[in-house]
Amino acid sequence: MSTDFYWRIGMEGDHASLRTPRRYNRGHAGGHRPGNIAPAIRGGRLDGYSYIDHMAAVVKASESAGFVGGLLPSFPITEDPWATTSALARESDTYRFMVAFQPGFLHPLQAARMSASLQRATGGRLVYNIISGGGGAPQLWWGDKVQHDDRYARTSEFLDVLRGVWEGTPFDYDGRFFETAGAALPPLLAGQPFPEVYFSGSSGAAVDAAGRHSDYYLSWLEPFDDLRVKFDGVRAHSAKSGRAPKFAVRIDIVARHTEEAAWAEIEKGWASVDRAAADRAAQGDSVGAARIKGWVPQHITGFRDLEVQPNVWCGFSLIRGGPAFGLVGSYEQIAERLDQLTDLGVDAFILAGNPHLEEAYRVGEEVLPLLQRTTPTRVRTLSTR
């Protein structure tokens, strides 16, 4: 059995470690300050090393450490993942680029042309991370007022149209959100490998759409029994469409030589806990965010209160933005938990750690070789440039 392991590319800047979660010193999040990395001020002048150079270093580090590709997230605070992928693709001949995007902000014909162009240029290394949006202020930042369930209906139409025009045959479509007449990709672009679809969302509407469209249903990490129930629901919806999706989980990791050393990293970061910031980040109509918020106790006496099962800690969002759940432990313990998730039905992982560059090496060199039941796969290029 083989499993794909992706690494997260820190598009929003990066901080030195979870021990210093408020110290962003890589990228532009903290401005150009002395001591920053990529770009930095040295001798009173910018050093000429851009943040795209730093992301390229993360690509090369994670590829050399055994990861098949990287996730490029998309938030109001990040650079655009489509443009960034175009810039990074030439840094490797095999690395896959998983572009996160909300379908409502692109017309499916334009998305098809952009995607097919990237597939042609990279030898088929584009992967989709479809996100339909979590509502609230972040959604309004994009100018999107479409309600929760309708966003997933819009996503389904988007993917119907995108697939419909992909092979270059004239395609007609008359839906609630999109309409085409005789639309098709030009012959130069038609017939490229269609990107694998990683589909996120925890609501009934999301699970229904994922059952129709996903190659991989992607979830944040949750307690393992809850993940099992969620996966069973996706399987049931997929079966109605004659589909059998695979499953993927996005996980932050703190792995060290010993369990004590890993928890010591968390303890140091705990001094910077910001419960109010985590509550603000969980606003909106995202069912997944609401589920995770419900697992975080209102009254916490210490960071170990948030260990919901061995090595599964739900306090990451209190230290830095992003998912609440992650894995904390020794290299052997983290490998064992990943093996348990594989037994549960997980076919692919998107792993992350701070800082992204150094932790890519650490996880790739110390954790992945310990996996007992999985063989990380390396990507095969589908065509040559």
UniProtKB/TrEMBL annotation:
Record domain Luciferase-like: where: 43-347
Entry-linked InterPro entries: Luciferase-like_dom, Luciferase-like_sf, SsuD_RutA_monooxygenase
Pfam families: Bac_luciferase (PF00296)
GO biological process, one term: alkanesulfonate catabolic process
GO molecular function, one term: alkanesulfonate monooxygenase activity
Tree of life domain: Bacteria
SUPFAM superfamilies: Bacterial luciferase-like (SSF51679)
Keywords for the protein's UniProt record, in alphabetical order: Flavoprotein, FMN, Monooxygenase, Oxidoreductase
Name of the protein this chain belongs to: Alkanesulfonate monooxygenase
Lineage of producing organism: Bacteria, Bacillati, Actinomycetota, Actinomycetes, Mycobacteriales
